[in-house]
Write a structure and sequence with these properties.
about 210 residues; alpha+beta; 5-stranded antiparallel β-sheet; 2 helices; 7 strands; globular
Length: about 210
């Protein structure tokens, strides 16, 4: 789907931009503007793109998605451990569909003095498509689910750069299409990626 790929490409572009900021003094104002610009673009595409998941009957009244304000505290420096034996499995979804993924590795980060990890997954079919060979996927649940964010969890995209230290930016956490429309089939975050903290960053529930 074109809109899905557009979001992925935008996230990958933003990831490289964030990495470039690491090499120089981090500019909080510029970062805030970049996040808001990305969100505004997504709002437009949610109405104008023919593959938008927003139901047609709701597009006339659609204004924008709901987000937490960007917080640099949720832009995490993380270590990236790759698994030598990347086990393959069938990931559960909201339907009977069972896409094949591999457990590519894990990222570790700190939040408020505590350590947390998330498994990193690779979609076996997606990486065969041109431009997505380095695309990696982090679905996760956290303690904001249902009350503040979509109950089915949220997603993060990262890129394989070969480095052992990367940025995990929860301000870019986004909802699966099922958050907007039940006709879609979406991955369900594995239990290994249930975070026992509140990630008050990124996209909130669409309908409060």
């Amino acid at each position: 789907m074109r809109l899905v790929f557009a979001f992925l490409v935008l996230n990958l572009f933003s990831f490289y931009g964030s990495q470039a900021q690491n090499a120089e003094e981090f500019n909080h104002t510029r970062y805030d503007k970049e996040i808001k610009k990305e969100r505004a673009l997504k709002d437009v595409e949610m109405v104008t793109d023919e593959h938008s998941p927003i139901p047609d009957e709701e597009k006339p009244t659609f204004k924008k998605l709901n987000y937490y304000k960007p917080k640099v505290a949720f832009r995490k420096n993380a270590t990236f451990e790759r698994f030598d034996d990347a086990k393959r499995f069938l990931m559960k979804t909201t339907t009977d569909r069972l896409p094949e993924y591999s457990v590519y590795g894990k990222v570790a980060f700190r939040h408020k003095g505590k350590n947390y990890t998330l498994n990193v997954y690779q979609n076996i079919e997606l990486v065969k498509k041109p431009g997505f060979q380095d695309y990696l996927f982090i679905p996760f649940n956290d303690k904001t689910n249902r009350d503040e964010t979509y109950g089915g969890g949220r997603f993060l995209d990262i890129t394989e750069t070969g480095k052992d230290e990367i940025i995990i930016d929860f301000n870019k956490a986004y909802n699966p299409y099922c958050a907007y429309n039940h006709k879609y089939s979406c991955p369900i975050p594995p239990e290994a990626n249930n975070l026992e903290i509140k990630i008050k960053a990124g996209e909130k529930k669409w309908h409060k």
